Input
Amino acid sequence: MCPLNQVEQMDLKYETRLDPPRESLAPIERGLHEFNRALVGRDVTDTHHRVVVLVKDEAEAVVGGVYGDMFWDWLHVKTLWVAEGYRGRGVGTALLERIEEAAVSQGVYGSHLETTDFQALGFYLKNGYEVFGKLEGKPAGHTWYYVKKELGGA
Output
């Protein structure tokens, strides 16, 4: 960390914003993307694809779905949800299998996601994921888990 007196000598202005407008993030993201390309040869944006799998009932209403982002040879599952009346019937597993298959078809070899102790940790463990990290107290009184799975792509 830079000592405070060195920061003050740099004659910089710091600005903190809550809920900033999207355009204020652009120079930060652009700087990181350029850094990544210089060191790794490619950036997240060079290989990024979003993928979604929906499941609908006979009336075409969405009763479940999963979506995530594929980049740097990994799938990051952002959200998986199944309507209450369809839980426990294999719908979640089918959604997870389909998004993983889509990822493998794009050369992805691993999947990772976050879940909490009150969400679906057991479900992901049952489907071949393993815990590689956890954060106690997120949210207060609970645990946030980081899980991953090798998919066998690439």
